[in-house]
């Protein structure tokens, strides 16, 4: 009942590591295809593509597991129980983990989740290819800084209209095997110990019969004094969680809370029969994965599917379909032979490809690399231009071998660093080797000590850095590593260094099994950037001879994400405190704009950006989200017109936070497109194309019964001169809103169509009663009997489309 389940040797049951991740590719276990981050996948609005992506992910997950199992390796992140997808609603643009979701709409989220779950779990009637886990049940979307102690109490109407919808869709349309419960409290009780949430709603109202895993450390939050402090002891926490239906504890730095269950039984806090139910649910999943059978249909998936050409091509396809063209005054697509200045802190930033929860990409292409490949090196000049924000830089590169030195036996500086290796967890005792290493830039497929797939070791590099240029240098290292330069911890900020002087460096790689890391394909890399350069001056110089400036800006997963330590202007703990582009980037954009060179902005972010000045002054803007390892290929193809963009926003891009409720207020008032009363910068569902589409001949029944499915059809025609993909979106607006939680406008259907120039296609939908009705104040679904509504079908939300870009009709529902 712990994520690191120990073996039961007398029964021949191996150990099982329940924790694995597959948000947009198999994560944290070495090489894998990296697809666009979840928010980017949502921007495709393509259910078939999502199914294909998830199928590829589970193929790779099975293949990697098969390979590990053949070698007897059952480490963290090697088993088949994936804690994905994240189907919380991105209700507030400040949330750092919103990038992991499918956006702000429960229906879109539910449809994408359905296809992801089905792709992960496979279609065999007996066996699961892998386990999908929908998370975090259920009212959870920031703030990150207070997630262990916050208590949320939404109205019944908001609960059912917004927070439960995607989970219900997953339960209704898939056989999803697992749910993860959240950190926060729900109406007074920790979510994983809430009878109302876990028993009445999850197991009762929604009918879920699989197993539930806690978020990591959430059971400890029951009694930690800095968290909920809801019960007094570990035993009480363990008993309460299991009684409420939490079967599995993902631990934290304080270990397994379920080890207190024997004490809880002795104290009468829980009985063994209740524990048996939890164990039965857990072993049911392991049986369905085929762990105890010899012949399982997925056990022969070969390792060759991992990062295969087929999957890399699929990643590129998903990246292309995820890019959203927000503005285009006609400058795009660029003409062949255009000379471009590639500028911006995200132009050559690999983190913008992989975001968070990622595997090791085998063929990453940054925006800079993609542009050079497309336009030719002779037509491209590059300058990073600025930091991302504060002292956070996106263009660190490995420290060059030429500046590393060590002392020889005569005390003279020689090339390389002294590399000392220990085959233990502590780095104590006699080392197994002492050698000279030219550079700290390693990705090992197996242990460099003994060649094993999962091994524990410590390596320390010592010596000196002799920089060639004066400056304040910012350094970075990957997980499991730490470093000091000139006796200073590199996390304390940039380090002043003089050219030609020798500065002591010590780098330690602790490749040990710990929470929450494994030792699969360990890496060691010391990267740096000279923060003292005249970044803006270099950028302006680069722009002088260019026809067009391509500015790759925005943010990355070092600024937004899960419970982070970052605390700088605009960012706090993984969340955002405002929506603007970081000031250093906007200042540079204004200087570039003043040169009179046209500037095209490609913005990377997992959340909405208030690009107000940029929208007013720049001729073209592309929203890239975090597009996966083939980002550069997809972006360059869009910029030079190899395809017509079709991505649509899965979130609203607001002009500011003005009028929005407090971040920790879970009321939906004035949140998301369904309730927002202001004028957005770019609305939910928005995106431009290189061609045009016309909607006509909408068909709906006369006086339909709102308690039955309602057929709708519309004709869509490509009226442009090039092929294009259109995301057809249907919205309903009840002409009278029964309560505050009734949406002012609501997405009820969508589909994608590919049309040649002049081609027409009739698109049909069957709108279920759930799509037509509304929730009353008690959270009950009510059919719109006797009510009237406006149904609009087009390339985006009603009110934001051209005359040809949508068609609408009145619907008068029959009375009961």
TrEMBL record:
SMART domains in alphabetical order: Fn3_like, PA14
GO molecular function, one term: alpha-L-arabinofuranosidase activity
Top-level taxon of the source organism: Bacteria
PA14 domain residues: 412-583
GO BP annotation list: arabinan catabolic process; xylan catabolic process
Gene3D superfamilies: Glycoside hydrolase family 3 C-terminal domain, Glycoside hydrolase, family 3, N-terminal domain, Immunoglobulins
Keywords: Hydrolase, Signal
Homology family: Belongs to the glycosyl hydrolase 3 family.
PANTHER family: BETA-D-XYLOSIDASE 5-RELATED (PTHR42721:SF3), SUGAR HYDROLASE-RELATED (PTHR42721)
Protein name in the entry: Glycoside hydrolase
Species this chain originates from: Hyphomonas oceanitis SCH89
